[in-house]
Amino acid sequence: MSTSFSKIAVLAVLSSAVALTTGCATKRATSEVVVAPLGIPGGQAGYNGAVIVDNSSAVVTGAENLQAVVYFAFDSSEITSQAANVLNQHASLLSSNPNAGVVIAGHTDERGSREYNMALGERRAQAARNYLAAKGVAVNNVRVISYGEERPAATGTTEEAYAQNRRAELSY
Q1: Residue 37 near residue 51 (C-beta atoms within 8 A)
Q2: Is residue 42 very low, low, confident or very high in pLDDT (cuts 50, 70, 90)?
Q3: Which sign does the torsion angle of CA 6, 12, 13, 18 carry?
Q4: 139: left (phi > 0), else alpha (psi -120 to 50), else beta?
Q5: Which of 82, 151, 159, 161 would disulfide-bridge 147, Cβ 3.0–4.6 Å?
Q6: Whether 135 contacts 90, CB under 8 Å
Q7: With a threshold of 0.85, does the pTM exceed it?
Q8: Rounded distance between C-alpha atoms, residue 150 and residue 122, angstroms
C-alpha cells in the first residue's frame, strides 16, 4: 500500500513541477515580423536606405523622386484613387527595372487590438502588392510586412494623426 502511495506522491510532484516550469503562454510586447526600414526619415519624399532589398543605384535614385506612402480609410485596405496614382508610378519604375525589389510595410492607427491591427496592416500591404501585380510587376520582387500600430508616423489621438498612421510605405 505504501508503494502505491509513493507512486501517487511522485506523480503529483512531477506534474506540479511540469506545470510550474512550463507556465502559461504570455503575450509578447514586441512583434515577431521581419524588420523593415523605419519609414521615411526627415519628411523625405522617398526612402532610400532600405537594407533588406538590394537595388542598383539607378533604382534607388529613381525611387527618391516618388511618393513612398499610400494612405487608407479607417478600417480599410481598399486602394483609393490617390493611392492608385502613387502605386502607378512605382509600377512604372519596377516594370522598367525587372530585377528591382521593393518592401511594402503596412501600418494602422492605434484603434483596435494588436492582433487585428497586425492583420489589417498585412491586408493593406497585400492590397498594394496586388495592385502592383495587376500592373505587371513580378510579385516575387515585392516583400510584404506588417507593423500594425507599432510604428506610428504621427502621435496623438486626433483624426489627423490617425489618418497619417493608416498607410503602406514602399522602400527600395
Answers
A1: yes
A2: very low
A3: positive
A4: alpha
A5: 151
A6: no
A7: no
A8: 13
- Locate 134 and state its grid cell: 495587376
| Mean pLDDT to the nearest integer, 126-146 | 97
Using DSSP, state whether 142 is helix, strand or coil: strand
pLDDT band at 15 (very low <50, low <70, confident <90, very high): low
Question: Residue 79 is which amino acid?
Answer: I
Distance CA 5, CA 34 (A): 53
| pLDDT tens digits for range 139-151 | 999 999 999 999 9
C-alpha cell at 147: 507593423
Listing from the earlier edge strand, what are the strands of the sheet with 142-148? 69-71, 167-171, 102-107, 142-148
Helix (H) or strand (E) holding 113: none
* Cβ–Cβ < 8 Å for 93, 63: yes
The candidate with the shortest Cα–Cα distance to 161, out of 98, 110, 97, is 110
Q: Please report, for residues 76, 109, 112, 165, the alpha-carbon distance to residue 156 in angstroms, rounded to integers and kept in the order given.
A: 20, 10, 15, 10
Looking from the CA of 75 toward its CB, the CA atoms found within 13 Å total 3
DSSP state of 33: S
For residue 138, the model assigns a pLDDT of: 95
**β-pairing, 167-171 with 69-71?**
antiparallel
Distance from C-alpha of 134 to C-alpha of 157, rounded to nearest angstrom? 35
pLDDT of residue 6: 59
